[in-house]
Each structure stands twice: as C-alpha cells, then as structure tokens.
Amino acid sequence: MTPDFIHTPAVQKLLDRAAGSDGEGGDARLKHIMRDLLEALMALIVKHDISESEVWQAVSFLQKGAGEFGLIMPGIGLEHFLDLYMDAKDAEAGRDGGTPRTIEGPLYVENAPLVENGASLTSDPDDTGMLYMSGSISGPDGEPVPNAVLHVWHANSKGFYSHFDPTGEQTPFNNRRRLKLGADGRYSFQSKMPNGYSVPPGGATDQLMQALGRHGNRPAHVHFFVEAPGYRTLTTQINFGDDPFAADDFAFGTREGLLPVPNRQGDSAYIAFDFVLQRAQSASDEGFSARARAAA
Ligand code: MBD
Ligand code: FE
C-alpha cells in the first residue's frame, strides 16, 4: 500500500469527523493538533504496515505502562527534545547564556523542607561517603543573585529516590531540600553520596529499553531548580563526569557544562559548581512549568 492511502477521501473524512474539524465547538487548537496526531499515526501504520494485532499490543503496552510515562518520556528522548526545542527558540529570540537547562525528570517532590544555606540534605542513615557542593549563583552581568531558593534532590547510595523508593526505606524528604540563600548568592550543602539510577526491572520502561537494545541507567547526578526574584527559573542537574554512564545516559540528561568531575577523597567527594541565571522577561519566567509534580 502506498502512503497515499491516508489521502483518500474516506480517510480524510474520517479524520475531519474524528478530530471535530468539521464542526463547531471544542478547542480549536486541540482540534488541529488532534487531527495531525491521528493523521501521523495513520501514516505510521501504513508506512510500516503495522498489523491490527501489533496496534493492540501497543495499546496494551501503553495501558499497562501508564504509571511509567514520566520515565518513558526521558527514556525515549522526548524530555531532552523539549530542552533542545526551548534552547532553539531562546536562540531565535536572542536569549542566550547562563547555565544550560536540562531535564527535570519524574522524581521531584514539592515542598521539601526549606533550610538555611550550608544545611545537610540527608535525613536517613546511608552506608556511604559524603557529598559536599558549593558555589555561586550569579546573573548575566556577573552580579550575585540575592534571595534565591535552590531546590536540590538526588538519589541515595542505592540509586533510589525518597518517595519513589521501592524498598520503602527512606523518610519522605531524604536527600531533598530547598536552600534559602542570602544576598551574596553563595550556596553550599552537604549530603550523602548518590549512586546512578536504573529503571525499575521488569517495568514498562525496562521492557521498552530491552526491545530497543538499550539500557536504562543514568550516571550519578544531582537535580536543581534555581528560583530567584527577577530571574528566570532554571531547571538543571549536574552529572558526575567520572561516572561510567556519564557519556551514556539513558535519559539524555547529561550536557556539556553540566558534567563536573567530583574531587574524590575515599568514598566522599567535593564538587564546585557555579550557576548563572538569565533575567526574567515575564512573570511566567519566574515560575515553574505546568507539569504535574508529586507532593509528599
Ligand atoms: C532519574 O533520576 C532521572 O533524573 C530521570 C531524568 C529519569 C529517571 C530517573
Ligand atoms: Fe534523577
């Protein structure tokens, strides 16, 4: 069958009716997007001659894997694609500079304890070394950014995140804090050394990665949101530059400029890292995206 099949009157009429394009009411933008989405899916079915059985297998995979959509998104590169797209739009608008953004991932939890600069992020025992980080938060002209809030979250030594830990061993905000920073834009914290993350064995993401001949591992990393009045909220993370998966992250979250090599001493390490923020151009720049986030 040639791809022209989707351009036959019967298919085009079906698309108009299915997306509501032939009627009033509904959301005009959604109707346009829905029509293109359906047409793209139909074109895919024809291009690869996907059988009825295969379509229903895919539906079943999506139904059973719904709880892991937040993990599949980075796994198939779509979350990183959003970064590339936002970067490209920024470049077009002349908004360059600052610390690169990179994916949030699915494991943030809202309302972590708000603590003073220098605090420890770790509440629970963990048989591993210490992680020390410090640096500055500055603006486009090198000015210190006052009154920032630095959200930090990372895995424990088993690669598990509190709130999402399958062993149930962590208290809700272990390795999660919001640091309330002062006028000088300096930050520092101590924590327990994280290890790399692996997708849940046997889950939908794992199944998909195996079917693609890929793995589901991330290097050890630390996530950040940097919020400050007058500045654009930054979503980023540092990945350990000396981790075996530093150049092979299944979630595509590693980026140039975000791969510091920890200064290791035994099983502890120190990382120096400075953040550079862009100035906000609108109130929404100072906020967070509309993504649904977990709350403990
Ligand atoms: C993680 O810890 C993470 O940061 C991402 C992006 C995906 C899965 C697990
Ligand atoms: Fe993570």
What does this molecule look like?
The chain is of the alpha/beta class and 296 residues long. It has two domains: 3-50; 70-295, Aromatic compound dioxygenase (Protocatechuate 3,4-Dioxygenase, subunit A). The protein has six helices and 14 strands. Strands 2-5-4-9-10 form a five-stranded mixed β-sheet, with no helix packed on it. Strands 3, 6, 11, 12 and 13 form a five-stranded mixed β-sheet that branches. Fe (iii) ion binds next to strand 9.
SSE blueprint:
Blueprint: H1 9-18, H2 28-47, H3 52-64, H4 69-75, H5 78-92, E1 109-110, E2 114-116, E3 130-138, E4 149-154, E5 176-180, E6 186-192, E7 197-198, H6 204-211, E8 217-218, E9 221-227, E10 234-239, E11 263-265, E12 268-272, E13 275-276, E14 294-295
Parallel strand pairs: 1-14, 2-5, 3-12, 3-13
Antiparallel strand pairs: 3-6, 4-5, 4-9, 7-8, 9-10, 11-12
Helix pairs in contact: 4-6
Bound molecules: 3-methylcatechol and fe (iii) ion (FE).
